[in-house]
Design a protein that fits this description.
Blueprint (H helix, E strand, L loop, with lengths): L1 H28 L9 H6 L5 E6 L9 E8 L9 E11 L9 E8 L2 H15 L5 E8 L5 E12 L2 E10 L8 E13 L2
Antiparallel strand pairs: 1-2, 2-3, 3-4, 4-8, 5-6, 6-7, 7-8
């Protein structure tokens, strides 16, 4: 009986440690926002100044959509110089009770080399959180990569969350090099 109880406690401890480690890695990615909190509390406790707005919507589609938007010039996980950064949190009326939300970061860099380097660095840092991943690559007719997206599916207790990393190579002038990071918590329950 003692061995069974010890085994259960060790498994629970390992699970809780893995959960805390995952949350701290994701919080770091999103400007140290506390992803366990509601969007209201996240933005109130942030060093970033967020603007708040509501878009009116149709109830059966999701209702009103709340959004919080902020800007930044530095990101502690991005070594390259950031031209400008934007972060937004989105939550519709039907998601409030379950504290479901989406966070998006759009980070503009100065050149293609920095863009791909930062994408690869984040890919390597976060791939171990996922139990499944999906890659979407768009290429031009001469096989040049125009954009690349990796979606990491992460088990989070009884739900699954999705972390996406995308880079876009511009084909027009003036060239803007964007690294886009998105997180949607609780996209599906595992039960």
């Amino acid at each position: 009986m003692k061995r069974i109880l010890t085994t259960i406690l060790i498994a629970l401890n390992v699970t809780l440690f893995a959960q805390e480690n995952m949350n701290s890695k994701l919080n770091e990615l999103f400007m140290d926002l506390n992803l366990d909190a509601t969007p209201e509390i996240m933005t109130q406790n942030s060093k970033i100044k967020f603007d708040f707005g509501i878009n009116k919507g149709i109830d059966w589609v999701g209702g009103d959509t709340k959004h919080w938007n902020g800007k930044f010039k530095n990101h502690k996980l991005i070594d390259s110089k950031v031209k400008q950064g934007q972060i937004s949190i989105i939550q519709n009326s039907k998601e409030i009770e379950s504290n479901i939300f989406e966070i998006n970061e759009r980070i503009e860099l100065y050149n293609e080399t920095d863009l791909i380097s930062e994408y690869n660095k984040l890919f390597n840092k976060y791939q171990d959180l996922s139990f499944y991943s999906k890659n979407i690559r768009v290429e031009s007719e001469n096989s040049n990569v125009k954009s690349d997206t990796i979606e990491f599916f992460i088990k989070d207790g009884e739900s699954i969350s999705k972390l996406s990393l995308t880079y876009i190579i511009p084909t027009y002038d003036p060239k803007s090099y964007f690294l886009i990071v998105s997180f949607k918590n609780k996209i599906r329950h595992t039960n």
